[in-house]
Amino acid sequence: MQLFHGTYRGRPRLFSYFTVAVLALVALALAATAGAAQLIDRIVAVVNDDVITASELEQNLERSIQKLRQQTGPGQLPPRQVLRRQLLERMVIDRIQIQRAKERDIQVSAQEVDDAVARVARQNNLGVPRFRQALKRQGVDYADYRQRLKEQIMRSRLSDGAVRSKIHITEEEVDSYLARQGKSGEDQFEYKLQHILVAVPEGTSPEETAELRRKAEDLRARVTEGEAFATVAAAESDGQNALEGGDLGWFKPGELPEPVLAEVEAVEPGHLSRVVRTPSGFHVFRVTERRRTESARETQVKARHILLRTDSGRSPQQARARAAQIKRRLEQGASFAQLARQFSEGPSSGEGGNLGWVSRGEMAPEFEEALFSLSEGEIGGPVRTQFGVHIAQVLETRERAIDSEKERKQARQALRNRKTRERMEQWQRRLRAQAFVDIRLDDQEASN
After folding, report:
1. CA angle 300, 111, 303 (to 5 degrees)
2. 315 φ/ψ sector (left φ>0, alpha ψ -120 to 50, else beta)
3. pLDDT tens-digit map of 105-116
4. Buried b vs exposed e over 269-285: b needs ≥16 C-beta within 10 Å?
5. How far apart are the first and last CA of the chain?
6. What is the pTM of this model?
């Protein structure tokens, strides 16, 4: 990935030059007094009015190497200096997004981070205390983990507003998606993919574009000649998932752009696609797995809940404390329906909190995640959403065929996700081009 050393792109920010100068002086002063610590604490990148230090970079590099080693196997990692430069570019882009999020006053409360930690713990079939112990065993500082999770939420909200909210799906696109998926009840294939991206920036000349295509062809050739795909992706890909070995996860046919799908369908697991051109650049895909799945079925839960609102003077902390008290009473045998009629502030309170049969995609994501993690009869919560704090109980679970309306809704969601992925790379590159970025990772340090 090409890095811009000491370059400035976008609208001038005169105060950035002053800031850079001050930061440089501070760094020199620290170096004069810190002795052996000078290398550890030196600035390796200036990003607008912020800095990335060598210690931050090395800490993140160790985490990335541990994850990548699981993809590549022993002895297959790219040179450390290559990974360092690749990671620094990702950190630069992440830092720019956090700055933009702060400029737009995107806030993430401590309670929202608590809820996110609890969700991750549930996904790993752990309670929060055991999850914290697992992080500690892996050498992960819990406060650092919470901060990274908070920044991840901030970046997600920023991109939702900048990219996802601007995507529109037509009925014709939904029709085409469903046609690709096949008729209801038929088997269909899903594909697990890895990918290498050679980005083509906006305004690239035909000659430069041809050169980028040759680069993509060369990278494909390196894999066919024996290099591990994950190794080449980590070292060379411009994609967001480069440091994960290019791993993209599972896709249904309708979730892939037509040019990509044609290539993916033409190869067997373990093989490579030809070089594919999309608006973001040139891609090489590897089909790591392929599986046949049954279409048009879903899991539903019959549920009820108690909602304590937080938009009428009650704070989230007060609502959570009251919800915890109500949950204890339920666990001691109190009637859920009776307490729902007494305390719930949702529209279903008069019906004992009954929500009927619920499918994925119908509720707030935080509530839905908690709901579908419960066993029949289990009481879950408190969980906070934009509406307030909830306690929930699952009464029954069932599998059923998806009706046509539900199919179209799911198709629309899958298409939105696909377009978001396609446009995210371009949006991030525009952010990068508009920022002041001064890379100070010199060749001697990069070779260590």
Report:
1. 20
2. beta
3. 988 888 788 888
4. eeebbebbbeebbbbbb
5. 19
6. 0.68
